[in-house]
Amino acid sequence: MIGPATYYRPEHRAALDERTRALIDRREAVLSPGYRLFYAHPVEFVRGSGTKLYTRDGEEFLDVYNNVPVVGHAHPRVAAAIAEQAARLNTHTRYLDEGLIDYAERLVEAFPAALDTLTLVCTGSEANDLALRVAKQATGHRGVIVTENAYHGVTTEIAAISPSLGGDDSLAAWTRTVRPPVGDGRAMVADAERAIAALQAAGHGVAALIVDTAFASDGFLAPSPATRATLAAVAAAVRAAGGLVIADEVQPGFGRLGATAEKPSLWGFVRHGLDPDLVTIGKPMANGLPVAGLVARRPLMAAFGERVRYFNTFAGTPVSVAAARATWEVLHDEGLPQHAGAVGAALLGMLRELTGGHPRLRDPRGAGLYLGVDVVDPATGLPDQPAATALVSGLRERRILISASGRDNAALKIRPPLPFSHGDAERFITELEGALRDLG
Amino acid sequence: MIGPATYYRPEHRAALDERTRALIDRREAVLSPGYRLFYAHPVEFVRGSGTKLYTRDGEEFLDVYNNVPVVGHAHPRVAAAIAEQAARLNTHTRYLDEGLIDYAERLVEAFPAALDTLTLVCTGSEANDLALRVAKQATGHRGVIVTENAYHGVTTEIAAISPSLGGDDSLAAWTRTVRPPVGDGRAMVADAERAIAALQAAGHGVAALIVDTAFASDGFLAPSPATRATLAAVAAAVRAAGGLVIADEVQPGFGRLGATAEKPSLWGFVRHGLDPDLVTIGKPMANGLPVAGLVARRPLMAAFGERVRYFNTFAGTPVSVAAARATWEVLHDEGLPQHAGAVGAALLGMLRELTGGHPRLRDPRGAGLYLGVDVVDPATGLPDQPAATALVSGLRERRILISASGRDNAALKIRPPLPFSHGDAERFITELEGALRDLG
């Protein structure tokens, strides 16, 4: 989730040009007041290509923010696959469709052998909602353990396990939070033991631990020997209590964390050495079409399928699958996970160099093209949310799209489309330096 | 939901051709065991156009089942709009997008004035899930009243208010069921009064009444003076208890019930004289792309938006909106709601004539192109689910796609794409007669 101060608010209206004002007025008249626009100075794009987005006036923006168009904006192969299928047939999964089967085979093959069964849904929220339904039914328990600033989605059930939503949208009585696997991880293990005991004492039992394997809303944690040991200990405790382990790959999955010869996996849970029972996937899966899924151990889904009727009308339709297949093929044919590993490492190096000379930046971190860097007050060294917001706004004026995230909304979140080039990285660093200078 | 006996089961495998067997084997190896295929003899389609679907061998099927491709399979205008937008730009609602605004304006204008605010989501389940979240927050209550065989979706929250799912997937403690508005409606009113009292006594209070305005899984109820009076009385009782009224238009909406000069509305709730606080829409909205929505009274969404952060990544994206806009335009340019009214009336007449001469059929009913007819045992006059299943299978062999629905899965459910022609209606009736003859 991004910081509230990087949204448009009514007091920004006076400074806007006439067209933007008119569009905002029309938008506000018909859309729910819950809709938010990025930036005090909102942007209207009319075209995209690769890592670039273009306004009506032809201004080019570099996209350092959008993770959904994973193979690049409006990728011609994905667009062609969608166009061809939409003009031919779009039904549902209750008729035979070889395209669905082909895609499912390729996808499942990219997971560890025990995770052998795919269920398609439309959104990450639906994927996590279904994962919890399966876990609760399989275990007979209903307690869920999440990290302390986790975000897993927006259905009623999933909002109730998403502390980052905060406010009135409070956690369920059967949700418990634990600190993320930072440092030596002892805090997370201790928290998990307490959470398990509390859930058991309350009669909820432990249905599942669910973790975003990029720990994005908890401040970005790259896989390390310490995260491996910590997560292994927590997963073992959860399993000993009869619970299941769910890896939420909706954001980190499909190669965003980069792939190298030694670490070729597309999935964050593999990098963390986690051995989940259920894995949810989504956002980049079809480069922008609403496609998400649940990859699971077969016995869990067999038991669920025997007792529960589940049919998702729009999931796994030929057009959705055509988009997902094309995205998968481009991802591999263009070697984007490997590219993300290489260019991400270079960008992390540039960020480290920049951080060394700038007291406002601290602790650049992450993996592949999922990076974060804290914005701090140079005097106190504490997270500086207003400065992060000013940087996001300053970068928007420099035609760079980025956001702030993390507990304090004071970490810059770097997660561009994967074709992000070395030149793109240099342009981003140059403009970030400029925006830092502007801050004074 | 369709009757379990119209699905493929392993014992049907031996009778299948080699290709179908091979596809099923591959499918079962990678997809969740919960996936179901229609028919003992599953069908593989490779192309669609209008109301027809075609197999690899060029066999033509008449589609009397699929409500999602509302303007016809693979409609060229919808396909072209999707293709154009996918090749140009697909982002999200946090940037300005005039296409989204245009569409929202047109859609909201087609609702009564008080229902003035749109929120887009991806699936009918998400729409109903959000509607309940809004209702629960607005009222401070959590009790929900549904009809006794209702189906509203598959998230954890919505499965808990969907009695038609049955089995272990049981209703929540805060769900109460009422009979649908049949006959003089007194049963529904009495049930609602009891449900309200019970929810209040249990401390849940009444958050909402939610009704599918086609009452499809409750056996199809066309709008009538009796349904108007009954629903008005139930809605008044719910409001007196502090609850809201939600119309689920996911299936009946967008003109399926037909439009005439006297009854021009696209929405079932208008036809039933209901005055809802929240309306959910979905299935046909984008002719097959995952698009759904919630149309609501603005004060409800303003209060919700102030207290809850809600962002749906894939909802209202330019490609989804392009598909929804094109579907909306075709629906109007081709006069499909009016066509559905006219051809639906003719088809209902043909069904009545057929029913008069066939003791196995009873009570043809419905509105527009959303019709049902009961299949009964000629000896007892009771619902005959095996005969309904045999008819569905017999019609599949005659290249007609249809299903059985209702409480006993003994009602034929007729809900074709809206371009269904008079000739299509005659072909369907001819084949239905043949399938009835085959039954003996």
Distance between the termini of chain A: 27 Å
Based on secondary structure, the structural category of chain A is alpha/beta
CATH class of the largest domain in chain A: Alpha Beta
Query: CATH H-level name of the largest domain in chain A... which superfamily?
Result: Type I PLP-dependent aspartate aminotransferase-like (Major domain)
What would you note in describing this structure?
- 2 copies of one chain form a homodimer.
- Chain A is α/β, with parallel strands linked by helices.
- Chain A has 2 domains: 4-71 and 335-439, Aspartate Aminotransferase, domain 1 (Alpha-Beta Complex); 76-333, Aspartate Aminotransferase, domain 2 (3-Layer(aba) Sandwich).
- Helices cover 39% and strands 17% of the residues of chain A.
- The first copy, chain A, has helices at 18-30, 76-86, 98-109, 124-139, 156-159, 186-201, 225-240, 268-271, 298-307, 318-333, 336-356, 385-397, 422-439, and strands spanning 45-49, 52-55, 60-63, 115-121, 143-147, 175-178, 206-212, 244-248, 278-281, 292-297, 361-367, 370-375, 400-401, 403-405, 411-414.
- In chain A, the strands form 3 sheets. In chain A, strands 4-10-9-8-7-5-6 form a 7-stranded mixed β-sheet, with helices on both faces. Chain A has a 4-stranded mixed β-sheet with strand order 1-2-3-13. In chain A, strands 11-12-15-14 form a 4-stranded antiparallel β-sheet, covered by helices on one side.
- In chain A, helix 12 packs across helix 13 (422-439).
- The radius of gyration of chain A is 22 Å and the shape is globular.
- The interface between A and B is large, with 102 and 102 residues.
